[in-house]
Task: structure prediction
Amino acid sequence: MAEINSTNINDLPTDPTNGGSIGGNISLEISENRNIPQQQIPSTNLSLDQTTISQIVNGLQQASLAGATQLPSRDISLNTNNLTQDPQIQPNYIPEPKEKNYILDSDDDLNNYYKAEKMENSLDSLYDELQGPILLAVLYFLFQLPFLKKLIFKYLPFCCLKDGNYNINGLFLTCGLFGFIFYLLSKTVKHFSKF
Result:
């Protein structure tokens, strides 16, 4: 017994875009085509007699005398360097290995690394050698500026004579200040050069 909410499959409409029709059931027609074997063409062996062969040979000889069997000059390669410079035609040719030689490559890489390291170390040592004299020259220049001398004369009058030159106290003060600033700057530069 069929349920109330179900439809028989034969009662459903079919989609007309897929070859069905909305109004009716599906009907399939099958027609079988039988292939009728065609008649086989009999193969015949052609045999050439001596006169035919001699005519062909004479024709080829006449064509070669007339130049008809030669290649046109546009087909002849003028550049033969690829044939003479090919390393594979050498009698004792050993082809390059297709795999990488990692041992030799790593040795080359190590040598290149050590050369670069040596160059960097030489530049670092040159920088370290020149750092001190350059820093001293800049400090000496700053301490000789009239601006600094006027500041010392204005705020520390006991270090200067009445004409503005340093007395012995002023020389000791500027010398100590010069050394202290040089020490601070050199330590600061060394600290930041580690980064």
